Amino acid sequence: MILMGVEIEMKLWDNQSLKAKRKVIKSMIDKIHHQYKISAAEVGRNDSLDYAHIGLGVVRNQKKEAEKVLNRVIRMIEEKYPVEILSISFLEGY
């Protein structure tokens, strides 16, 4: 069993308020939950207007499969949301 996580720091574009930011992040997290069936949460920079820090977690039988799912999620975030990903940190456990 492989436990893998990723922390993503991102800059959000075109936000006018924390309410607007939270709407984008909530939409992103809900889509990740429903489409990819993995855990996701905002884990930092909650009060920042322009920046967000989210964490993702997945459990799979093989490392390659866990990496594949997380990389798909990262690609989806880049393609569908008005964000610039600043850093990505992969975490792994057994």
TrEMBL record:
<dbReference type="InterPro" id="IPR036746">
    <property type="entry name" value="TT1725-like_sf"/>
</dbReference>
<protein>
    <submittedName>
        <fullName>DUF503 domain-containing protein</fullName>
    </submittedName>
</protein>
<dbReference type="Pfam" id="PF04456">
    <property type="entry name" value="DUF503"/>
</dbReference>
<dbReference type="InterPro" id="IPR007546">
    <property type="entry name" value="DUF503"/>
</dbReference>
